[in-house]
Amino acid sequence: MRLESERLILRTTDSNDKTELFAYRSDKETNKYQGWIPETIEDVETFIGKIAKHINQPGSWFQFSIIEKESQKIVGDLGLHFWDKENKQVEIGCTLNKKYQKKGYATESLRTVINYLFAGLNKHRIFASIDPNNENSIRLFERIGFRKEAHFVESLFINGKWEDDLIYSLIEKDWEKIHLTHK
After folding, report:
1. Cβ distance 168 to 148 under 8 Å?
2. What is the pLDDT of residues 118-160, one digit of tens each?
3. Which fold has domain 2-181?
4. Cβ pair 124, 115 in contact under 8 A
């Protein structure tokens, strides 16, 4: 699977990505709001081994590697969880290497994938689970057009402690309105 935007290539994550993925995903400070921080390269190999080989399989996780066209370097990854058996809802999440943050890459990659999910795969709703302390992610998803739907208190047990969870979502008809106003 491959998608392109102006500055980025998004393609299926594969075993050749393990070293670059480990380099930024293992950074505990940058990824403090993530539920998964690999300790070893083997952790990344296991993670990659669990990724669905094809996009749009109900109940599966699919992962894109985000590649900067100019340098051909992996700048981050974007995950999709094809959540329900009717296959109309998708959970989305994005992780960027700290060296490539604040350049608009998360916005560009999310918009590219969201367009594909709505126009190409006919999805109805896309949602994101965000740590309430992750202000950068909250601003990112709000800027793209997601709205806050819920704040669940101590609903996730991550790294040995209970964490709150914010749910942000976007439905297709709202995405269409956003695009009409930006043309």
Report:
1. yes
2. 999 999 999 999 999 999 999 999 999 999 999 999 999 887 8
3. Aminopeptidase (3.40.630)
4. no
With a cut of 70, say whether residue 36 has pLDDT above it.
yes
Rg of the Cα atoms in the chain: 16
Q: How far apart are CA 95 and CA 82, in angstroms?
A: 18
- Per DSSP (E only), the strands in 13-160 are 61-68, 74-82, 89-96, 125-130, 147-158
pLDDT in tens, 65-122: 999 999 999 999 999 999 877 889 999 999 999 999 999 999 999 999 999 999 999 9
Cα separation, 3 vs 16, in Å, equals 18
Phi, psi angles (nearest 5°) of residue 157: -100, 105
Cα(47)–Cα(38) distance, integer angstroms = 9
